[in-house]
Design goal:
Elements: H1 2-6, E1 8-10, E2 16-19, E3 24-27, E4 34-42, E5 49-54, E6 59-61, E7 68-71, E8 80-86, E9 89-93, H2 95-103, E10 106-107, E11 113-117, E12 120-123
Parallel strand pairs: 4-9
Antiparallel strand pairs: 1-2, 2-3, 4-5, 5-6, 7-8, 8-9, 10-11, 11-12
Length: 129
């Protein structure tokens, strides 16, 4: 699984490809290629730093470089949390990880609940609500 993840690319048209030095093959991804399966927390309040780990071992710090956004995926569903993992590639937070963040949430500058990480506030509710 890690090997496939390491050669995964996303084109400007939204298609996903496995790219090696000798081959290139298109693959289908239902939603996003990664799932964030755990979170660790350092500090509290606005000084908090949240590190997320993916199902293939990627670790990212929730920050300007790895933003969390709430997005509706269609059909009137509730908004789901997504985070940028690598350039052009996103991961969705697993439900238990989202609940961990929700437990630590506080009202933000815009009144929505969310979490602070690396000096930035990330809302855990859609601005469309």
């Amino acid at each position: 699984m890690k090997l496939f993840a390491s050669v995964l690319r996303r084109e400007a048209d939204g298609s996903y490809w496995l790219v090696t030095p000798v081959e290139r093959g298109r693959i289908t991804v239902d939603d996003v290629p990664f799932v964030m399966v755990s979170a660790s927390f350092d500090g509290i309040g606005e000084a908090q730093v949240i590190t997320l780990s993916s199902n293939v071992g990627d670790e990212i710090t929730l920050s300007d470089a790895h933003e969390l956004v709430m997005r509706q995926t269609g059909g009137g569903e509730e908004a789901k949390p997504y985070v940028s993992v690598r350039p052009g590639l996103e991961g969705r937070l697993a439900r238990p990880v989202y609940y961990e963040l929700a437990q630590r949430s506080t009202p933000g500058p815009d009144g929505r609940f969310g979490v602070w990480s690396a000096g930035r506030f990330f809302a855990l509710e859609s601005d469309l609500a």
